[in-house]
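Researcher: I'm preparing a figure for a lab meeting and need a structural model of a single chain. I don't have an experimental structure, so a prediction will have to do for now. The sequence is pasted below. Please return the structure as tokens so I can convert it later.
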Amino acid sequence: MSDTTPTIDDRLRRLRATTLQWLLRQDQAPDPVALRLQCLAWIGCIGMPLYYLVWTVIFPQHYENLGLRLLGVALCVPGMFLPRLPGRFSARQLRAYEFAGITYVLPFFFSFMFLMNHGSTVWGESLLVALIVLFHFDLWWALASWTVGTVAAALAFAWAGDPAFLASPAVLDQAPIYGFTILVVSVTKVGRRVLAREKLAGMAQALALVSHELRTPLISVSANVRGIERLLAAARRRPDAAMAPGTEDDEAAADSAAVNDAMARIGFEVRHMNQLIDLFLQSAAAMNQQLAATEQVSMSDVVAAVITRYPFAGDAQRDAVRVVVRGDFRFCGKHELCVVVLLNLLRNALKALQRAGHGQVRIVVDGSRARPRLLVMDSGCGIAPAQLPHIFDRFYSYPPSSGAGIGLALCKDIVHAWQGRIRCRSRVSGPTSGYTVFALEFPDRGGAAAA
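Model: Understood. Here is the structure written out token by token.
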């Protein structure tokens, strides 16, 4: 039976292909400025004549002007075809067209109609909507457009109507409302930009953590490969008699053992990298909230799968892990996600043993309680009291170079999604031996059956 488990090369190849496809799609994507102009142009071409009918036939207003609306349509028509004309216009030309069109259609037209209709409620609210749309653009660009359009509208009104009306309460009373609207929209935009920067910073931090996590095992693999190459080169330089069957000397035996150790270490690091990639993929799934319980899971089966899949460094490390089943239990969850949880806990426990230089790990499946639970206990170095409240925080790790800081946060998200809870008690090693206990408690059997 062939092994169909994807190797790290297969996964990296898929990741590279997906990235290239995404970059190609980005490279072929239309200019966002042109798309924005096209959307606004369609709205203008439809809205200008439509609302002429609304305000003259359905809800007649004091003043309407078909010529101004047709001029607005004429300015909007070219924008409808911009995405189909790639490379025909420079960025400066697009910005100039955008500024002229938006300034006429939004601040100038709506301000002029507001004034010509003597500050009516309909046009006061319409001007407010126009300002909200305008200030979704860049702040300084929108301020410039609003200033130019409003001044032009005031001059046009002064020439065509009663200039004294510009200082009337019907106009001045609206100024605080419009000013407050501009302030709120601008602050909201700043908040969105800050959130976008935080997301980018989080992505950069996550990529840095992934790189750090994968770099260490890759360095180990590279070092072991170089060691094997040196041993093979030394073997080729030996006399043929030394390599003949039955004449293997102590040096050849030592070299053979060193090669076997190096190959075992390479295998361990490759399995470790596969485990890390699984962890990062499952963390991405957790961030997308794909955690809902969809199957009945046996905890004993999960523990057996973890013991089988974990890349133990050797027999000594495997023998340090003891499994105790006081009673199997089933719960509503997902088998693979539960495996990831236990893999994380086992990995942390074995790291604690490694830092302490001694200890054992016990995994206890306790289904005899009203609320069945899983215990993962180690007698390693323990966790300091100052660090214990933060261990489930995302991107928190101690020592800082000990991991990516996403494992325990992921465990918490998964267990909580299944209506369970995860707790930790620990004591650092000192005069007495240290320990750490992670307890995963699941809903009682009645609650689990109902779920």
